[in-house]
User: Fold these one by one.
Assistant:
Number 1:
Amino acid sequence: MMRQDQRDSKESRHGDKAGSSSDTLPLQCVLTLMLIPLVLAGCSQSIALSSPTPVIAGPAATEIEAQVEIPTPTLAPFRFDLPTPAAAPVSGWRPPLYPVPWAMSSYDHFYFARPIAADQVNWPLADYRYGGIFFAPNIVHTGVDIPAPEGTPIQAAGPGTVVWAGWGLFTEAPDNKDDPYGLAVAIRHDFGFKGQQLYTVYAHMSKVSAVLGQHVETGEPLGLVGSTGETTGPHLHFEVRFPDNSFYNTYNPELWTAPPQGWGVLVGRLMDSEGKTLQQLEVFVRNEETKDQFMVKTYGGGGAVNHDPYYDENLVLGDLPAGLYKVSFRFEQDVQYWMEVLPGQVTYFTYEGENRFTVGPPQAPELDFLPVTATPSPTGTPRP
Ligand SMILES: [Zn+2]
């Protein structure tokens, strides 16, 4: 568990309703799905250098159900003591989101709207980000949690076909009310990413209104926020998956959902001097103008966590107002570095030990990559 004293005390000053609601939410997702914000649907931007790609029509819904290969889960690992929820990463206010699909470089892919409307908290809980290990070793969060109240409408993050609606997504057992995802919806989207199929997943719902096989548009209602499945409070667990609709094929949703206008996303790959990635390292990110400080942990290292095919990141912090930030952490020594977070795009940096930072896009982009997804391991099987 994270120690409260490591959190930024400044967070408490965010007193607006939205911010304080997330400060006190008792929830947590024992699973790890994720969601995405909704939005100004429809606008395909001419500046979008990276465009969603058409994909081959996916298998029918019934086939989807059959093809997901998931080991027989035991529910015991889902029973944990939950950590104390932390403050929202920034204040409770956001500018309107960029229209989707949004991509200012050929490597960015903010293709999805957020799954909760903009008049509600529609950003992830700070301490329940993708890749986090919150409850026990080998239990990794495969999505983001949005702390919406019970009954809040959940909206499709993009157009597509409903390929799961109801109980049993994780266990592949329809009507299994012990499924850790609870009532859930999965959408196979009408567009893909570099020719690969994209899916989004919405879990812990109190009510599902979407129907298997239904085609939905961005922003269409799928159901209501709830606390079904393995969770201690109402929230939406949201996931982005590709190329298969599998627990082992999730990616960080903060790299797939449109940022607020004028805000950006900080992405990093932190390694030691031998190139080995640093995991569960607490990294502090401070806005030098507002002095707001956020803490985010690095992730990775097998299990169900996957890394973006281009960035190969182990740290993502979304929803940062553009500006100058100080990034600091302790690895072998106190380390700090300043970098400019640019609006509407990823600001990428690497750390390679011994105070060696680079800021800028990764070199040698591989345009024809195929994602390397997690391989289920016979022992220490991760759970959603
Ligand atoms: Zn979750």
Note: Confidence is low (pLDDT under 50) at residues 1-27, 32-48, 57-90, 374-384.
Number 2:
Amino acid sequence: MDPSSSLTLAFAAFLLAGLAVKFWLSTRQVRHVARHRDAVPPAFTGTVSLAAHQKAADYTVAKSRVGLLETAFGAAVLLGWTLLGGVDALNRALVAWLGTGMTQQLALLACFAVISGLLDLPFTLYQTFVVEERFGFNKMTWKLWLADAVKGTAIGALVGLPIAALILWLMGAAGDLWWLWAWAVWMGFNLLLLVIYPTLIAPLFNKFKPLEDETLKARVTALMQRCGFAAKGLFVMDGSKRSAHANAYFTGFGAAKRVVFYDTLLSKLSPAEVDAVLAHELGHFKHKHIVKRIVALFALSLAGFALLGWLASRAWFYTGLGVQPNLAGPNDALALLLFMLAVPVFTYFISPLMARFSRKHEFEADAFAARQTSGSDLGRALLKLYEDNASTLTPDPVFVKFYYSHPPASERLARLGAPA
Ligand SMILES: [Zn+2]
């Protein structure tokens, strides 16, 4: 078989297999949660009410149902873009209109992004205004949603188009080793984002106020000093503007490093529990999880760019994915686009590996928090967060292995030795 047909066949086979596994996992999860809906698991009978347990079950099932529909639709759209000729048709139309060159290539990427966004829109809207709304989590108004969409698109264009233009230019002008240059630019861009996202972009969507509660500030400052962190950049974010879900995170590096508490988190946890949650976040830093993640990203992207560098000059890479390459002009945007569409289909099956690393990191951060603060405070905080986010206490074990970036509540509390 020629390479083009082999690629078509492999792509179709992986897409179908991925779809089958996703359906199987989701069905398992829904069945498992529904089967355990009637009783709070024994370890939680004293701390979680039956009503909260059932709300979590219903929420999980509702989200899984929409997720399944979205997965099926997404696979159909992907097939439409590739083997059924969507990218090819869009590319031809743009070449007929703009000729070949940089403008056409940028237009191809931009049109693809806009069309994909529009196709996904019904699901995003349903998720926010129906599912989240039904369970009392959505705080977003239509007006706010629209403002977010406009701002998000504008920022996407403002940040995305220049970096895309730079990479496309390198692909055309930097010779055989273009992929090495493009990789360096891409990594620089990612590091830059780590600095400008918390300081310039996030404030366009939310208000960040310095933490003012003096008692809490004193506690948090003491904890940070104990763990060897400069206690600056403590912020409270108005997360309640969009959703009742609570969270805290640590972001950026260097001077842009900051700790962000959602106002929804501060309103639900006691100071000792906030401390424990922060200690967990500090644990990620102490164990160098952030650095490890960045290094992994560097290595994986290098492999990705090297592969793309090789694929971009093979005609079968295009024809195998349903596209006739341009004979008279550059095919760099086509190569980027097809690569971004095809790679996730093949890498889906390593997601359990990624999830496993992530869960291991969460356990390490929990253990750090338990040493620095108290395991029972962290346990109580986690339980409140799981309950407030309506995370099910009884997920399907196989589903967890595949997807869960955070271990289920039962495992985390058991390791903390906290009375659940
Ligand atoms: Zn964590």
Note: Residues 280, 284, 362, 365 surround zinc ion (CB under 6 Å).
